[in-house]
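Hi Y.,

Following your request, here is the sequence exactly as I used it, all 307 residues.
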Amino acid sequence: MNELTKVRPTLMILAAGMGSRYGGLKQVDKLGPSGETIIDYSVFDAMRAGFGKVVLVIRKSIEKDFLEAYGKGFLAKVSYEIVYQELDMLPDGFTLPAERTKPWGTAHAIWVAREVVDEPFVVINADDFYGLEAYQTLAAFIDKQSDDANEYAMCSYKLENTLSEHGTVSRGVCLVNEEGMLEVVDEQVKIGYDDAGHIISEIAGQLVKLQPDTMVSMNIWAFKPSVFEFIEDYLCEFLAQDASNPKAELFTPRLVDRLIHERKAKVRVLTSSAHWFGVTYAEDKKAVMENLHQLVISQKKYPTPLW
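Below is the corresponding structure, written out as tokens. Let me know if you'd prefer a different format.
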């Protein structure tokens, strides 16, 4: 396939989060040396890795903030779509419970973009910096892919490089076989440090020690459009069982784990030398700004201003 005919992947950015732990709209927080956001760097890296367009999944209530933040930046330079993730956007036959205020989860966020994505795509969190190499690695996987519509990929990171010093985080803990294929991804929602500096996870009320080099998912996945039908099936099942639970969410790692165990899809685990960092808590902001300053000013890996 030559450069003129090959499909260029789409970058889907999940940016509808409420930022409750951060205390603000971190999707538009200016963290780079010239006021860039993490999303700015994600789009910049994806475009130079060969991606074709950007899909932003946001809430309608923050559209104005997004247009003000990005209208004169990458939105003026790349092909893009804006998709809304609202609580009442559900499969046929389901209605929004009156008490529901929390988003339905990352798998739902992907599903709402199904009508604007017909090509392979990489999905990321808005508040995570993944690094150029991660996008290059996933773009190369997509470019070399076979016709298997249900073979996906993820870019993994070492657990010790993905934690916050300011509180617990959610991570998809991965078990990978000798062929480099994902066998299990266990979404654990309370991973952090204990007083002795060990990495621990709270599972069913029990504290479990995790190794620093444990491979984890940071929600950077390469999917094909076939995943939308899978998500809808599981979303319907999830809503039938858990819609009345105001805190229940359908996480992407749990969706992927189901697909693997039911042999509906397979997922290759890729690694890269990319440096990850992100903002979960307000206290993380200083470290992120320092990391970006190092990459931009000291290492000159990015221009400033970026756009």
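Helices lie at 38-48, 63-70, 106-111, 132-143, 226-242, 252-261, 285-298.

Thanks again,
Q.
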